Amino acid sequence: MRSIVECIPNFSEGRRSDVVDQIVAAIRTVPGTVLLDRESDPNHNRSVVTFVAPADRVVTAAVAGAKKAAELIDLNKHSGEHPRMGSTDVIPFVPISGITMEDCIAIARSCGERLWSELGIPVYLYEKAATRPERENLAAVRKGQFEGIRDEITSSEARRPDFGEPRVHATAGITAVGARPALIAYNVNLGTGNVQIAKKIANAVRHQSGGFRYVKALGFELKDRGIVQVSMNMVNFEGTALFRAFELIKREAQRYGVPVIGSEIVGLVPQRALNAVADFYLQLENFSENQILEHRLAEAIEETE
Amino acid sequence: MRSIVECIPNFSEGRRSDVVDQIVAAIRTVPGTVLLDRESDPNHNRSVVTFVAPADRVVTAAVAGAKKAAELIDLNKHSGEHPRMGSTDVIPFVPISGITMEDCIAIARSCGERLWSELGIPVYLYEKAATRPERENLAAVRKGQFEGIRDEITSSEARRPDFGEPRVHATAGITAVGARPALIAYNVNLGTGNVQIAKKIANAVRHQSGGFRYVKALGFELKDRGIVQVSMNMVNFEGTALFRAFELIKREAQRYGVPVIGSEIVGLVPQRALNAVADFYLQLENFSENQILEHRLAEAIEETE
């Protein structure tokens, strides 16, 4: 199995598309890199780039993107709705195939070391790569943003970077580098116009208020359709499976006499997450992904190569 | 998308493993061919080889296997429980990716033409490649087996081959070449020891007795587990989906107060068949296979190449 890592760097530029073009081009100069998606939000003034690469190339590609971002983005001149602390704000590495979370943590550390030694950008490690429990949560790491961290980092031990000296890069700020499982944006639609029901069910399913450990959820109204939605981030689909969240929401909705009328996956989903759904509902005995024709084929082709 | 075809030739030899080795080796001499499986049954005296190959190579690989089988297997000396009419008894082509059933029918015709012109083996086209309705069913095509067809083919218009003169090859007989959808062996296990219930439910689900068009089914006892099983061949999973057969069996079992305790997929299953299960149970809205990370990755890599 090839070792494939997904990397989803977030850059603090969502208005000048030529800048994002140049960053993406820099990433793609690294052979073996495959761009899966790029999205820019002008209000957030932020872009999210999604690419995959072999494990031995992914750091080089991420550093190439961060180098170009440092050249082109000056945080002193940046404003937008989304909180940010670096030209390259955050670089998460996600294990996709033939690779463990531990490998991705090592990759994150290697990336952090290179951001400092090659670009002079200090780095906080976060999520699974965090070196302190309080740095697992990205929002906590980024608190105060570029300006606040710039002022505190020189004197506060709590703010000391994992790589680099205790000062932000003058224009590129500081970057959070981490490892995490794949995230799935998953919404369940309810056949009612009453948004209170969606909010109550979101409360039941999400970790924050006592629900499943790896689910973040909010209740929304979809005005154009006259329905409501439980909108979720499944932050670890192997820990909390899609079908489990779906079944709980269906059961909670029954309590209000409301039907689930559909669900939707927004963006990308790993194949394994869907296979787990099929396995659950068909009550499969002894099923192995090696029985999937395409899986066997991919492995056989790699053996041949 | 690469055009990938699966080919599952059946050879009339299940006892001499060196013979099967040589046939498999001949198939593998064709570049791009990937062997997925081989199974020999001594009682049936028959072997089933499963391989995939690019559309432009799959016929060459199948003919190479048939040539070696014609050299090594003499049907006049063959006996076994399974009906057979050729050293290479049957060659089905199955569309896997980037290819239609119509393409596979053309591939089957090309294969039939070459078996006759290069090896002197006449050919019946069957299933989706059939040229007459009565040849869709392989069992009907093979009726009388090698000996019966040898005696009738010279005089019976109904027995006239689709390729070749109306006489069997003296030792290699005649081969059925066809195109068909992927077949999934799928069993559902019931929490009862009463085999009559499995037989009744098999009757309800299978095409032959009024059930789903693309399901063949039988009821069996699994003595070692003290349970019974509805054992199915899903002969066209896009026409009759796995989840639909599963749900019907679950409902029929309820009528007897019997639970479904599990199901099992035997051998290989195309990824699309499992994705359809996830789509159904999660009630997904507007889901596309392009949202599957591995799918997007495979396409992006091919574009790069």
Can you offer a commentary on this structure?
2 copies of one chain form a homodimer. With 305 residues, chain A is an alpha+beta fold. The first copy, chain A, has 9 helices and 11 strands. Chain A has helices spanning 17-28, 58-72, 101-119, 138-141, 145-152, 195-205, 242-254, 271-281, 293-304; strands at 4-7, 10-11, 34-41, 46-54, 88-97, 123-127, 175-179, 184-190, 215-222, 227-234, 260-266. In chain A, the strands form 2 sheets. In chain A, strands 1, 2, 3, 4, 5, 6 and 7 form a 7-stranded mixed beta sheet that branches. In chain A, helix 1 (17-28) packs antiparallel against helix 2, helix 2 (58-72) packs parallel to helix 3 (101-119) and helix 6 (195-205) crosses helix 7. The N and C termini of chain A lie close together (11 Å). In chain A, 47% of the residues are buried. Chains A and B meet through strand 3, helix 7, strand 11, helix 8 and helix 9 of A and strand 3, helix 7, strand 11, helix 8 and helix 9 of B.
Characterize this entry briefly.
Two copies of one chain form a homodimer. With 305 residues, chain A is α+β, with helices and mostly antiparallel strands.
Helix count from the secondary structure assignment of chain A: 9
The structure class of chain A reads alpha+beta
Unreliable spans of chain A: none
Q: What is the β-strand count of chain A? A: 11
Query: Using only CA atoms, what is the Rg of chain A?
Result: 21 Å
Straight-line distance between termini of chain A: 11 Å
Q: What profile does the largest beta sheet of chain A have?
A: 7 strands, mixed
Helix content class of chain A: 25-40%
